[in-house]
Amino acid sequence: MLRNGQENGGCHATLRFGQANQTELFRTLLRNRSRQPGETVSELAHDTQRLLSRAYPHASVEMKETLAREFFIDAVGDSDFRWKIYQARPKTFNEAVSIAVELEAFALSEQKRGNIKRVRAVGERTGSVKEDEKLALSRKRLWSVGSNSLYVTGKLEGVRVNFLVDTGAEVTVIQTGVFRRLTTGKALRLDEVPLDLAAADGRPLTFLGRGNLLLKVGELEVEHEVLVADIDADALLGYDFLKLYNCTIDAGAGKLTIGKRQLEQLGTDVDKSVGTRVVVANTVVVPASSEKVVMARTSAQMEMSACAIVECSESFLRRRQLMVARALVDPSKGVIPLRLMNVTDRPVTLYEGTSVGQCQPVELVDSIASERAKCRTVTKGERSGAKGIIALGEHLEILAEKSCVDLSKEEADRVRQLLADNANVFARSKEDLGRTDLVKHEIDTGTAKPIRQAPRRLTIHKKAEADKELDKMLRQGVIEPSNSAWSSPVVLVKKKDGSLRYCIDYRKLNNVTEKDSYPLPRIDDSLDTLAGSKWFLTLDLASGYWQVEVAEQDRHKTAFVTNRGLFQFKVLPFGLCNAPATFERLMERF
């Protein structure tokens, strides 16, 4: 009775807590995992590791690292957030988490940041800012960037600057970066600022100093005292200037009058700071999971230099789920090329006139023309005659030494230069595989149903060898985990040196595959072409088949079953009936 009770208890425990191997359940949860509202990046990373350990309990450390990184990035947030992480190219899971945490912290700080703060004197001149906090906040809303702030174009020491006309700023202030532009090639003196200064919200400002600069607005050109500080705008035209020169602001008409002279160039931040809307010139379709260059135009004429920057708007990204590459363009040409990326699994249509983003004028900050003037082209003769030898990678040094035996100094330099120019075609190690996209292998099985075969039993010794080879292929990017309905067994074949070759028995797959009749070269014809030759060169491709990709829609057919699960080839495996024909096509492309 006790034995039966134990058995029943085991059954009840199984029903209550589930089967010991629930990997498929956890894999489904992992694939469908997404970041929840209010969930931090660290919490998501912890849960991803928890699910991964249950979904792939027998995977190697390297494989778990790769899967954790990919699943975490897929679940971390919207497409823009994921794209920023991918751009950083994290190599490990921890790197991806660190990047995501930094991006999250930056996003939170941007939300807390206000717009441009008004500058007010504190202490001797105005007393405490706190007593007028409500008025300062209301002013900030009226005159901040993003509303209809008023800008006027002027010059400081002969350099063009956009001034933000700010009645809430008691002093005229310029940005530290603008001041550095003014000091290029000449010395400008700054004195210390004796007062404590703060923004309208009480935030203290860091000042570089104060000085008298030549300021020109419209026809008025005077020396005026300005302060240099870390502010968001290029320059603030403060109340001290507006009062001293009898300036009148017509906010409704968007005009500034100095004395009796009216400035026509006064504009809002929509035209001068934020920029002009960029719209699609013609109706286009952006295919799924692809990039496309489309032509666009600005919605209005812009007064700007020949250089402007195009940026995607958040509303466009949210509605269309298309990414727009930030780029410098020349709007004066009438059309603007935009690179769009569709990261979704469906095509997206953009109709003529669709607003994509903004085009904002940019100004030259630093010129490197003087540095370029110092550079010149080095001729081949000068290069070969330079001191020392041409530096090569460690993997090419031995080849260069063997190739340069009995050669003159000039001939040896030419050989080394040839190797340096083509260094990318040589494998750096035995695990360094190249990849070509000139041809892709396709497996046409017609209407055949998937063929499923059971794994073959391996001895303990062979199982260890098989696991070692499997880890190596995962590390090289040759295979990937699979959920395919197809499966073929693994066969270990002993080579001449006694080691084992990892092979897949694709005979049943080959039986249902349409045969490729592309001809292979005859050996006797190949030998005939060598007749009369004295010098012969051989090039051995490192795992040549593995440098040819398998078409994505057919990769699942290459799936093979192991004691660690199901995997499929990303590259051309040995044993497929049409593999020689595909490889011959590649050889004849050269």
UniProtKB/TrEMBL annotation:
SUPFAM superfamilies: Acid proteases (SSF50630), DNA/RNA polymerases (SSF56672), dUTPase-like (SSF51283). Keywords: Endonuclease, Hydrolase, Nuclease, Nucleotidyltransferase, Protease, RNA-directed DNA polymerase, Transferase. One of its GO terms (molecular function) is endonuclease activity. The keyword Nucleotidyltransferase applies. GO terms for biological process: proteolysis. CDD domains: retropepsin_like, RT_LTR. Residues 474-590 form the Reverse transcriptase domain. InterPro entries: Aspartic_peptidase_AS, DNA/RNA_pol_sf, dUTPase-like_sf, Peptidase_A2_cat, Peptidase_aspartic_dom_sf, Rev_trsase/Diguanyl_cyclase, RNA-dir_DNA_polymerase, RT_dom. Residues 161-175 form the Peptidase A2 domain. Transmembrane segments: none annotated. PANTHER family: REVERSE TRANSCRIPTASE DOMAIN-CONTAINING PROTEIN, TRANSPOSON TY3-I GAG-POL POLYPROTEIN. This is Retrovirus-related Pol polyprotein from transposon. It comes from Stichopus japonicus (Sea cucumber). The lineage of its organism: Eukaryota, Metazoa, Echinodermata, Eleutherozoa, Echinozoa.
